[in-house]
């Protein structure tokens, strides 16, 4: 396992190899050590590896020793996970672009990482109204008291209010940073940051001492969405970064809920746009919201429940059999079904629809599917 960690780190140091391309490498070669030892011709078989990328790999790979790199890197960054580690957040690993290196500080909770404790992301504007602050505090408190982990980005405004309310309610919270895990931004949240370290986690895909950078914050939003079973957008103008998080949530098959606002309120324009695109409204009855969030199936990777006896399947095409085999023992998200079957998104969607009509498969919240 230590060896494979070294190769995740080494590949992440090569320019032009981002999380998506790295994920493709892993899927193609099964291990990143095998990918590291592959010839240029073998690497060229992976989608996205064109001539320029291959040239960069050949030049930079020859100058790196993965084991030495890991040993040196751990001196300044002792706490991090790679997808090769069992502690790596399982829900994030199911997305198309999991960070190759995920740094952390704080209190690790294994059940949370394995998806057995549900996490809900709360995002919104840095300049919320009194209305947005009030509802963010109320919802974060309710979630924390009902066993949900609140995920946000430690930014000023809605993020700050959601973290603080969850902590005050005695719950756990996760802050995903656009800096290194040892850099607090904004600086005014230093005390909140210290509290999070005692009642949750601080995560980042950037190494220690990485300063704030404008391009980092939109990218970190995919991690917030990936860690969460659902995303709540509290207040968001039309160009808010919260909409980026909501878009990632839709891409990852997560549920999106929105706090409605008046049509002439500037902070509500992004929320109204999301509502027009099919997001669910957050209504006054919070019990209903908690009920819907609680209905999202919890992942159970550590202690799988006994499989119920399976009835004989009718005659199915090879494509439909592939789908049924993929979801033989547990519900799976759409992205993971696509990954396991090797079929295209349109082929999988069409096959799932046929299986639903046949009464063999049912869809769960969050674009997850299970056998009937």
Describe, in short, the structure shown.
Residues 298-309 have low confidence and may be disordered. The protein has 3 domains: 2-76, Orthogonal Bundle (DNA polymerase, domain 1), CATH 1.10.150.20; 102-294, Rossmann fold, CATH 3.40.50; 318-371, Orthogonal Bundle (Arc Repressor Mutant, subunit A), CATH 1.10.10.
Tell me what the structure shows.
The chain is α/β, with parallel strands linked by helices and 372 residues long. It has 3 domains: 2-76, DNA polymerase, domain 1 (Orthogonal Bundle), CATH 1.10.150.20; 102-294, Rossmann fold (3-Layer(aba) Sandwich); 318-371, Orthogonal Bundle (Arc Repressor Mutant, subunit A). Helices cover 45% and strands 12% of the residues. The protein has helices at residues 2-12, 19-29, 32-36, 40-43, 51-61, 66-76, 90-93, 110-113, 130-145, 158-168, 190-199, 216-227, 241-251, 269-276, 286-294, 318-326, 334-341, 345-357; strands spanning 80-81, 102-106, 119-123, 149-152, 173-176, 200-204, 230-233, 255-258, 280-281, 332-333, 361-364, 368-371. The chain has a 9-stranded mixed β-sheet, sandwiched between helices. Strands 10-12-11 form a 3-stranded antiparallel β-sheet. A hairpin with a 3-residue loop joins strand 11 and strand 12 (368-371). 42% of the residues are buried. The model is unreliable at 298-309 (pLDDT under 50).
């Amino acid at each position: 396992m230590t060896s494979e960690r070294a190769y995740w780190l080494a590949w992440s140091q090569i320019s032009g190899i981002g999380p998506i391309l790295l994920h493709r490498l892993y899927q193609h070669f099964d291990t990143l050590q095998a990918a590291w030892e592959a010839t240029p011709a073998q690497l060229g078989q992976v989608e996205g590896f064109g001539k320029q990328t291959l040239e960069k790999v050949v030049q930079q790979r020859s100058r790196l020793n993965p084991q030495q790199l890991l040993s040196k890197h751990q001196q300044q960054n002792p706490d991090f996970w790679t997808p090769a580690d069992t502690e790596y957040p399982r829900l994030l690993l199911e997305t198309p672009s999991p960070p190759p290196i995920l740094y952390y500080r704080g209190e690790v909770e294994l059940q949370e990482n394995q998806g057995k404790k549900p996490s809900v992301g709360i995002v919104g504007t840095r300049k919320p109204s009194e209305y947005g602050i009030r509802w963010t505090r109320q919802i974060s408190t309710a979630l924390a008291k009902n066993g949900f982990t609140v995920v946000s980005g430690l930014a000023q405004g809605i993020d700050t209010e959601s973290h603080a309310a969850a902590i005050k309610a005695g719950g756990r919270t996760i802050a995903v940073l656009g800096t290194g895990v040892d850099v607090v931004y904004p600086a005014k949240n230093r005390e909140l940051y210290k509290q999070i370290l005692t009642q949750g986690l601080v995560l980042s895909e950037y190494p220690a001492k990485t300063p704030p950078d404008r391009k980092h914050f939109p990218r970190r939003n995919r991690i917030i969405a990936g860690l969460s079973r659902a995303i709540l957008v509290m207040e968001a103008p039309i160009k808010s970064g919260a909409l980026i998080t909501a878009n990632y949530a839709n891409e990852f098959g997560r549920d999106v809920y929105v706090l409605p606002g008046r049509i002439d309120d500037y902070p509500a324009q992004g929320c109204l746009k999301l509502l027009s695109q099919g997001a669910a409204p957050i209504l006054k009855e919070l019990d209903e919201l908690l009920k819907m969030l609680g209905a999202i199936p919890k992942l159970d990777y550590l202690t799988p429940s006994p499989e119920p006896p399976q009835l004989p399947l009718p005659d199915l095409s090879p494509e439909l059999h592939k789908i049924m085999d993929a979801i033989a023992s547990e519900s799976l998200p759409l992205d993971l079904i696509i990954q396991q079957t090797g079929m295209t998104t349109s082929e999988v969607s069409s096959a799932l629809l046929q299986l639903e009509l046949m009464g063999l498969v049912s869809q769960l919240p969050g674009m997850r599917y299970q056998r009937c």
